[in-house]
Please model this.
Amino acid sequence: METQSIVACDVPVVGINPLTTIDYPGKTAAVLFTGGCPWNCRYCHNPSCRDNTGSNGLTWEHIESFLVQRVGFLDGVVVSGGEPTIHANLPVLLDRIRGIGYSIALHTNGCNPEMLQVLTRKGLVDYVAMDVKAPPYLYEHVTRFSNTGVRVARSMSVILESGVGYEFRTTYHPRILDDYNLMDTVRAVYNAGGRRYYIQRFRKMGVSDEELVRYGDIFDVPGDIIEEARKLFDVFGIR
Ligand code: SF4
Model:
């Protein structure tokens, strides 16, 4: 991930991954990372990005030059974070990326349903990958921030009603979600209307929470939950 100074379109893009084949289904893409996120999940794998206020953000000229050079090589651009939707000028950034000719995927924690409404109505995103971190009754425990579950539920509705491509995904760590909580999360996604869903096994790389790091990577997801999810969703996978 490269970094440089100054800020693009008033959105602090603090890093670029020049090539990914796993972050935008079916597409070869670059990832732009925006700085800042109001939440404080214990398993955050990019805390430096979460806490980055943008003073080291990339210029639009830098991003534009990078993207223009790769037209014909990359299919799309993933905008990730941190949390991109907290930045009021995100539509401007996406519009400029769109103007170069790229398909756009957004990774979001779902904290800003109003912004998602704007982006989907303006046709500025082609795919949204949204975290569903917990069942509603446990949301504040996971995000360590108030009223998060309500906003996430609204964001799910916005995405589903928009008709945009999407996936919902849950990071699984047994110290954060026990089997019962994970099953409730699966059912909450299904009951909200989600039909494309992934469970992501916790990976310790980049995480700052010492207890979770000591616990190590998670390899196993309870079999009965996998079985239930396979029955419920049109698209389901473990990552
Ligand atoms: S929502 Fe995402 S970026 Fe924000 S603290 Fe949680 S894991 Fe980190």
Summary: Residues 37, 39-41, 44, 50, 81-83, 109 surround iron/sulfur cluster (CB under 6 Å).
